Amino acid sequence: MSSKHFVSTKPVRKLNLKVLKRILSYMGAYRARLIFVVICILVSAIASAGSAMFVEILIDDYISPMLLQDSPVFTGLIKALCIMAIVYVVGVLAGYLYNRLMVTIAQSTLKRIRDEMFSRMQYLPVRYFDTHTHGEIMSLYTNDTDTLRQLIAQSLGQMISSISTMIAVFCCMVYLSLWLTLIVLLSVVVILLVVKAVTGRTAFFFVRQQQAIGALNGYIEEMVNGQKVVKVFCHEDKNLEGFAKRNEEWRLASTSANGRANSMMPMMNGLGYATYVLIAILGSYMAIAGVPNLGFSGTETITVGVIASFLTLSRNFVNPISQMANQFNSIIMALAGAERIFNFMDELPETDKGYVTLVNAREENGALTEAEERTGTWAWKHPHKDGTVTYTKLEGRVVMDHVDFSYTKGKEVLHDITLYAEPGQKVAFVGATGAGKTTITNLINRFYDIDDGKIRYDGININKIKKQDLRRSLGVVLQDVYLFTGTVMENIRYGKPDATDEECIAAARLANADSFIRMLPEGYNTMLKGGGAGLSQGQRQLLSIARAAVSDPPVMILDEATSSIDTHTEALVQEGMDRLMKGRTTFVIAHRLSTVQNSDVIMVLDHGRIIERGSHEELIAKKGTYYQLYTGAFELE
Predict the structure, then answer these.
(1) Residue 268's closest CA among 203, 201, 192, 200?
(2) Going from the N-terminus, what domains does the chain have, and what CATH number goes with each?
């Protein structure tokens, strides 16, 4: 399959300077270390060029004269060799230090970036996670951050080192011979033209490689999570086909990118050797023919020492160009990953202009006062512009007044929804899949904001209530249960972080989960992994109900809470659920009509509209849609 099926093939920018500048801003926190790194790089570059210059001194000042002596004295040569050895050692130490420091800076910088990524993720709206796959988000933390690590730890340091080395070597070449320097420069121009012709689109393929691996990871993540569904529907062959296509896309992009990049080094080496041979031939000819040398060292005839030194310098000049060309592609790939990371970090967090908060309260003589400890009574704290504060008792009265909503602009999914939930009432939503039942509860939670109308909670517009306080007042039990890695006790306590063990156990008893928990290998201390893979769906649901119970919320939302529980387990749960709902306003979404018969109000939805409302008896008497559902004239789909 062609790449257009999975990744973008549009041309990419060669170098995003804004992204690079932003990366450097994160590294700015380690300015002192970076300055030391630059000093070490300069020392290493000077040592590299200086050691090549020593070759000319060794040959012309020591070795050549000693060849003409009957009894040569090696003292001067040994001193020169010692100095040369010291220069090499200094260069090696400087290289070691700057590489070690760059690794430290890279890991520290990436830690800051990952911290910010995770922190930002906590405050992104639900809409973001509904429109991006988990694998795509995980790829930011793994593949993209890894390319960023290579950029900071290796590429940036090597680029600076290569540039510094080239400058130092160029100065040395000009000092020795302008003629030979011109030959090297002409050879470099030829090398660059050849490299550009062969590897011109390497950066483009590296970006495609990152996009392809992100798509592949997303697919793998989906298949791992859905293995049971895959096996139930015998979808293995289709999945293998889908994986093969995405894997082939990654292979093609990776082969194109790395094939071109890897061919660069041997190509540069070959052209570098050609330059080496050319300088050796022309330098030897100039020495034999007595051509005057032109350089800052003088205009005398070129010597064997100058030729030997220049040969080393030419290699030291071409190699950094090869390294820079190779690193440039890594930089482009890293910047592509960094741009994806920064786009993620720049996603707008949930906006919250609410100012009404939820507090513990104490009621005396009809007046509410704020309390530090938990009293069992809640109140909405409403500050006013004049500095005064009023308190409204949390009773659980929820009103939706002519509410319209659309996930995508222009495609309305809820139309003119009006409902009244009085304190302590049980309100049930019934309707086919996609009728808008869960959407209504999402709006009460303010996971999404409405397009039109009003939602009031105890007479307060929910836009004025801080989202954190609004959600703290709502207990939610979802159809899809997610249990975190940790003990059973920790998973129950997730509903109330400061809950005592006794409170967690009481919540488990309320949900009728205590008996099966005590049968686990280590009871409440049993470690759960993989989303509670060792538990049945019903047991996971019971823990979810216990988690909601321990938070003791004034309002409950039960979204298909018993749909995955067998009839026997449902009977055990129903009593606990009734105790949990007692005195609380409760919104129930259910496919099983038997679970909503005792509701105070039943809303029948169809395509985002409330088409019937009333008690079970009233709706049966009407003999409308609910009656047909209840009697089996047609079924929910």
Answers:
(1) 192
(2) 3-345 (1.20.1560.10), 384-473+554-637 (3.40.50.300), 475-552 (3.40.50.300)
Q: Which of 190, 393, 172 is nearest to 297 (CA)?
A: 172
**What is the reported pTM?**
0.71
Residue labelled with tokens 């034999």: 288
Q: pLDDT-derived band of residue 405, with 50, 70 and 90 as boundaries?
A: very high
Assess contact for 560 and 596: CB atoms under 8 A: no
CA atoms within 13 A on the CB side of 29: 13
Nearest to 511 by CA among 475, 482, 542: 542
pLDDT (0 to 100) of residue 11: 41
DSSP code string of 286-297: HHHHTPBP-BTT
Instruction: Give whole-number Cα distances, 568 to 115, 558, 572, 598, in Å.
Output: 46, 19, 7, 19
Mapping DSSP to helix (H, G, I), strand (E, B) and coil, where does residue 250 land? helix
Could you give the residue ranges of the DSSP H alpha helices within 123-201? 126-131, 134-139, 145-150, 156-176, 178-199
Structural contact between residues 58 and 85, judged by C-beta atoms closer than 8 angstroms: no
**Which 8-state DSSP code applies to residue 434?**
T
Helix axes 178-199, 236-289, angle to 10 degrees: 160
Q: What is the chain's mean pLDDT, rounded?
A: 82
Per DSSP, the residues of 327-372 read: HHHHHHHHHHHHHHHHHHHTSPPPP----BEEEEEEEETTEEEE-S
What's the number of CA atoms in the CB half-sphere (13 Å) around residue 167? 12
Q: Are 207 and 332 in contact (CB under 8 A)?
A: yes
Contacts of 487 (CB under 8 A, 6+ apart): 522, 524, 525, 526, 527, 528
With bands split at pLDDT 50, 70 and 90, how would you rate the model's confidence at 134?
confident
Residues paired with 166 in a beta bridge: none
Dump the DSSP string for 557-615: EEESTTTTS-HHHHHHHHHHHHHHHTTSEEEEE-S-GGGSTT-SEEEEEETTEEEEEE-
Write down the pLDDT at residue 564: 56
Q: Could you give the percent of the chain with pLDDT greater than 90?
A: 16
The pair of three-digit structure tokens given for residue 335, joined into one six-digit string: 């910047």
Q: From residue 537, give the alpha-carbon distance in Å to each of 131, 296, 519, 532, 542.
A: 27, 84, 16, 9, 9
Q: Which amino acid, one-letter code, is at 406?
A: S
pLDDT > 70: what percent of the chain? 89
The pair of structure tokens assigned to 549 is: 């119970």
- Closest listed residue to residue 438, CA positions, set 401, 495, 479: 479
What's residue 465's pLDDT? 93
Classify strands 357-364 and 378-383 as parallel, antiparallel or unpaired.
antiparallel
Question: Rounded to an integer, what distance in angstroms lies between the CA atom of residue 258 and that of residue 245?
Answer: 20
Mean pLDDT of 575-595: 75
Q: How many CB atoms lie within 10 A of CB 105?
A: 21
Angle at 357 between CA 351 and CA 361, to 5 degrees: 165
> In whole angstroms, how far apart are CA 382 and each of 28, 178, 361, 423, 561?
43, 82, 13, 20, 33
| Cα end-to-end distance, the chain, whole Å | 36
User: What is the structure's pLDDT at 611?
Assistant: 92
* pLDDT tens, residue by residue, 290-316: 777 777 766 677 778 888 888 888 888
pLDDT in tens, 185-230: 888 888 778 777 766 666 677 777 777 877 787 788 778 767 766 7
